[in-house]
Amino acid sequence: MVVSSLKLQDLIEEIRGAKTQAQEREVIQKECAHIRASFRDGDPLHRHRQLAKLLYVHMLGYPAHFGQMECLKLIASPRFTDKRVGYLGAMLLLDERQDAHLLITNSIKNDLSQGIQAVQGLALCTLSTVGSAEMCRDLATEVEKLLLQPGSYVRKKAVLTAVHMIRKVPELSNIFLPPCAQLLHERHHGILLGTITLITELCERSPAALKHFRKVVPQLVQILQTLVTTGYSVEHSISGVSDPFLQVQILRLLRILGRNHEESSEIMNDLLAQVATNTDTSRNAGNAVLFETVLTIMDIRSAAGLRVLAVNILGRFLLNNDKNIRYVALTSLLRMVQSDHSAVQRHRPTVVECLREPDASLSRRALELSLALVNSSNVRAMTQELQSFLESCLPDLRADCASGILLAAERFAPTKRWHIDTILRVLTTAGTHVRDDAVANLTQLIGGAQELHAYSVRRLYSALAEDISQQPLVQVAAWCIGEYGDLLLEGGCEETEPLQVEEEKVLALLEKVLQSHMSLPATRGYALTALMKLSTRLRGDNNLSLPCHILELKGRLPSHSHATLWPSRIRQVVSIYGSCLDVELQQRAVEYNTLFRKYDHMRAAILEKMPLVERGGTQDEEAKESKEAQLSEAALVPTEPQASKLLDLLDLLDGTFGATQPPPALEPSPGGTLVHLLDLPCASPAPASIPNLRVFEREGLQLNLSFVRPPGTPALLLITVTAVNTSGADVTHFVCQAAVPKSFHLQLQAPSGDTVPAQGGLPVTQLLRILNPNKAPLRLKLRLTYNHFGQSVQEIFEVNNLPVEMWQ
Length: 808
Fold this sequence. Notes:
The chain is of the alpha+beta class and about 800 residues long. Among the domains are: about 425-540 and about 570-605; about 695-805, Gamma-adaptin ear (GAE) domain (Immunoglobulin-like). Helices cover about 60% and strands about 10% of the residues. Helix 3 runs parallel beside helix 5, helix 25 runs parallel beside helix 27 (about 470-490) and helix 28 packs antiparallel against helix 29. Belongs to the adaptor complexes large subunit family.
């Protein structure tokens, strides 16, 4: 006997009337017990009513899995009321992870061949929702037959089901190629829109389909031209734009068909120009069509004038009041800046205005585009605008802005003085947000500009006196004061305002840095080294090895002068950090104390100025290439000064002067040639070099592989993955994963970072250790995931053409 239960309407009213969640659970549990009892009794007349109540319970978030088999029974029923609820239950309760969904394959096949449009529509909807790869393979021929049925209702649903099948099983594309050509002649809006979507999916997943459908480009152009000029149907027009959804889909398909194909692109050029000039931009629907037109122009091989028109459209988008449209325009211009730099450059003032947007996402996109627009002709003006933005931007944007300014200044600096001033202003404004290499780059820049030493040390001293909170600025200033403190005290720089600096003020400032709670251990290390170097640069310290009273008798030092007191004061400050908790700072202080105590006569020579350093250029590259040869020559002919320097170094470390004997001179080999040296039994042959390989390149991101096989372990292969970004936007959240066959052993080391800086910045490297005990040919598959130009990208590919030297 069937247990009496509530009707669906009564159940909804009772659940909504529950005042607490406990009351709601009680009502649902009671009704679910009635539904289970009804299913067990097998009441065929009320089964669809019970399942309808169960589906409502499922939509509220309560478990309803016990109704899955009842869905199958209702689908197999000949009654339409049962089938309707059964198919709805299957779409809600079944998915590919459950084997029960395969049991409805035969029922769907039978319903598709019945000829009743309502039943066929239910079966097609269910197949396109829960159809797995196995179901798609079994029912593909049935769906293909329905594509050419006379009824538009069934054909529309069959086209959408075919789209789902292609996404699940791309190899089924050959089945749906012939019907698509006929469906393009349809006048029905839904069928034509679905057909364009189906052709798009086929072209994206099958090169053969892409080649096949390039023949229908003229027909697609004709359909779109009809939409633009005469309209398609009044009921599908939105805000005066004729069927914008169909226009957008056709433009997307044309973009795929015209990519890297000259003939197809030439056919589209006139139509794209017509769409770009005749579309109304006062409504959002028109803006959507225009944006899709711009994307199509960017991707195909369009004419130069058409690309300029596309950039101008995006420039008009920047003036739109809608923030979403401005964001889309900035993102698109960022993608075009590499290929059409001069055209995008015309809209630079508008882009700079977008920096002042209160919306953080718009400001970030405008910042990325502004940095990409910097070149040698506008670097001064753009840097000034970016520095103004840096002073007022959100904290989340300061790191990107500061790094971008530093990179732009390094690439396009007109003079060294301007370069130094720019970096100093960035360090003063947002020193805590700059990249880690900013300090090293600035010290290298100042060290290589001998004519600007006095200017730099004065600027840095003034900045340090005003603010010691910006740690990178403090580090550079401390280094510069230590190196060029004598120039600071002389006061002979004509490029800055007259500044009288006394030794007492300089030492007090460095001591203030050492005592500040804001100073990092690295900053204290810079300040401690600066004090040590100042001990040899302060005036009146040329004869520090003589006692103070002797200097007074000789008349070289006035009585009560502080000139010889600076080393003692510096020594006292240094000795304080001999017991510092920071190991690096403690070691440095102990070494400096030893230098004062035992090797005071060598202090001036050890702490002399750093030699000039040349930045970049071909000289560094040539020096790097010839480094190995120079080291070989130096190893063959050791000289006496080298031995003495080694002696001094060892003596400084162990404190036993004269206890270490100098190394004996190397005796020449019997033949006196390099050949005899290489013929020694202990010498191993140099490993064969393996050529580097570029495996990936997309929108400025390049991935290169370099290979090394250590001589001692021939089964081990070291692969260094290097990611370089030459585009105008940073690549963020960069992750590289690798896979090899089971016979290999793979170990991935941690990468050097997850952000690849734009415009050829510091690359990201990662080491792969692959053990190949069987010396089998290597198969390597890589997966890259990253964010670029505001889009999330994932690439999976197998590396081909690996050098055979890797395993032979």
